Amino acid sequence: MTHADHILIERHDGFQTLTFNRPEKRNAITSPMYRDLYRALDNGEADRGVTAHVLLGQPGVFTAGNDISEFKDYAEGDKLDTAVDGFLKRIATLRKPLVAGIDGLCIGIGTTLLLHCDLVIASARSTFRTPFLDLGLVPEAASSLLAPRRMGHVRAFELLCMGKKFKADWALSAGLINEIVPESEVKVAALAAGRHLADRPPEALAAARRLLKGDPAEILARIDEEDRLFADRLRSPEAKEAFEAFLQKRPADFKKLETG
To answer: What is the edge-to-edge ordering of all strands in the sheet holding 15-20?
Structure first.
């Protein structure tokens, strides 16, 4: 399977689906995948035949987040790819609704991108986690701004700083998702939502969404601020230890850095 197969793009009657398709790596997202997502969203925004976008994963896994090997390469001196930043700014400035169907694992950016979605449907077995601090990093996707707004500081701190794994019922009560359905119905429900949105008057829908979302300038500024900190942290001793530990399948030892 080539990277071109890792994001499946399908056009339906009035909406499009973008499906993570790298199950052998738990749908971990690479730079080429981010570029494919960006292009698909950009093309859908320009197409009058597309009224909404729907994000999907595979049974049991939405995405495990960013591909850690790329972060490790940057930490060791490679140039950081701009594809992630481009994707984040694209979802922050969409005119058309964004729907997500989640079944199973939803980690890192898989969780934070949900803060940009208008409707999120998840199965009861879905789990949500943002292990940024576990990797010596900081939150991204403007989640440091959007999560406290949506769920309050206390729950946002649990999600973004404690790094705990949360089940679907917590995500529902926190306002991260809209609905819990049986795992066999996630895709069906997400497609039904896309179909329903496709039947709405598109210009009125876009205008109503813009009123709800407001000016994206503050979100874009926060993405830039997080990006700068994220890039700095990627080359920190804490991040290097975390990446090595992850790839060696051992616990990270941050205490040794204090005395090393």
So the answer is: 7-11, 15-20, 52-56, 98-102, 119-123, 179-181
